[in-house]
Amino acid sequence: MKKPQTAVRSCRQNQASGHEGREKQVLSSSQVKPSTPDGTMPKFPEAPAGLARRQKEVVLRASVSPYHLFRDTAEVTVFRENLLSWYDREKRDLPWRRRAEGEMDPDRRAYAVWVSEVMLQQTQVATVIDYYTRWMQKWPTLQDLASASLEEVNQLWAGLGYYSRGRRLQEGAQKVVEELGGHVPHTAETLQKLLPGVGRYTAGAIASIAFGQATGVVDGNVVRVLCRVRAIGADSGSTFVSQQLWSLAQQLVDPARPGDFNQAAMELGATVCTPQHPRCSQCPVQSVCRAHQRVEREQLVASQSLPGSPDVEECAPSAGQCQLCAPPTEPWDQTLGVANFPRKASRRPPREECSATCVLEQPRALGGARILLVQRPKSGLLAGLWEFPSVTAEPSGQCQREALLRELQSWVGPLPATHLQHFGQVVHTFSHIKLTYQVYGLALEGQIPVTTTPPGARWLTREEFHTAAVSTAMKKVFRVYEGQRPGTCKGSKRSQVSAPSTQRKPSPGQQVLDSFFRPHHPTDVSSLNSMAQ
User: Fold this and answer.
1) Same domain, residue pair 366 and 336
2) From start to end residue, where is composition biased (Polar residues) (predicted)?
3) Residues with catalytic annotation?
4) pTM
C-alpha cells in the first residue's frame, strides 16, 4: 500500500535533494568545506593534530542534514518577529529587568545584568529574586562590591549554592575598578577574556542586554528551544552539537533588539517550552518547529493505522549517520511528543564521600549558649565558608569518634571523650559530590567556658549562626543536632535555650524532675545568674 504524502518533508527527502541545495543555502549555520578535485580532503597548513581535528570537523559537518538548519531568511524573520511579539506581551516582571531597562549609565546597567546572570546559573528565578534584591540594596554599584569583604559576600550568598560564583563576581568587580578604570568591557569577547568567572554565556548575555551587541547566547533553556525547533536529537552536551547550537543562536539573534531577543528565547524555554509538559499551543514559534511537525505526522500516521514506520526523519546522509539526529538506539517515544528533544545526556553519578562533624556547644557561656564554627580553606569546595569542626571519615565509621575528638581538641584543648554523642546523619548532594555527614554533638556542661579561640574559629550564638556564612548542609546538620539533643523536642528547629521568654514555664515540681533526669539549660542570662547564686 502506498504511503500518503504529507506537508512535512523528511530528512531523507531533504538529503536526497540537498547536496546541490546545500551550496545555495541562505544564512546557513554551518558551511561544508569543499574537497579537492580528486575527492580527497584538502590539506591544511597545520600541525598533524590540528589537521586531524579539522578533517574530523569537515566529516561531521558534511553529515548534517539541512533539515536541522534555517535555510532561508523568511524562516529566520518569522522566528524573530513571532518570538519578540510574544515576549513584549508575556515577559515576566523581574527586578533585574526593571533595573537594566531604567538604568542610563552603561556600567551600572552591565553590573545589574552581570549579577542577575551569575545568580541565575543553576538556580531558579523564584529563589534568585530575594537574593538579587538584597544584593543590589547592599552593593548597588561595582565600586561598592569591590570594597566589600569576602566574608560579607559569602554571608549574603549563603543558601544560594555554588558559592564560588559570589567570590568570582567580587573578583570581577575588583578587577573592573582597579584595572579597567571602573568600566565594564562592552563586547562578549573582551568580557570573557578579561573578567574572572565570566564564560561564554554570561559574556554574551551582558554584551547583548547591557550594550546591544548582536551576539547569541545558549543556556539550558535555549538549548531546549533550539533542539525542538530544529529536531536536534543528538547529545546536546557534545562539543559538535554545542557548536551547532551556538551557530544557530548567532544566526537567529535580532540585530535590532539582541538583548530582548536573547531574553525572549530564555523566557520561552522557562515558561512555555519546558522540559516536561510543554505548552505547545501557546508557543509563538510553533509554525517553524520541527518537533511539533514530527508530532503531527506521527499522530496522522497513527490515526490512519498504517502498518510499519514511516520513512521520516531518519536523517541518514550518504556520509553516515546524521550528527544532529538521535542515535538509532533511541527511537521516537510517542508518549513524549516534542519532549523527545533534546536528548537527556547520561550523567556520571556524583562520587560519594563521608564526613564526621560535631556541634560543640557551651550551654552556659556568658551571654547565652554558643557553638563553635571553623572556617574552611580559601579554595576548593565551599571555600571560605564556616562550618562545624569536621573530619573526612570512612563510610564504615571506624575510628570516627577518635579522629573527630582530635580535631575538636586541636581547636579548644582537652575535652571529655565520653560526652561525644552520635545524633544521626545528613545526606547533602553538591554538583559532583554526595556527602554524608555523621552528626555528633558535645556539650561543655561543667567546664570553665572557653573565651579564646585560635585564628579561623569563632563561638557564635544561635541567632548569629543563622545569619553567618554557612552552607545549607551545615544548617541541615544543626537541625539534626537541635532535634536530637537532650532538652529539645524531637524535630524542633529551635532549642529551649533560644526559646522566647513568653514560653509557658513548667511548675516547680516539674522543674525538679527535669533537673533530676537531664541537665538543665537556662533560657536566658538572668536564669544563669540565679543558678550561680
Assistant:
1) no
2) 7-17, 26-38, 494-513, 524-533
3) 117
4) 0.72
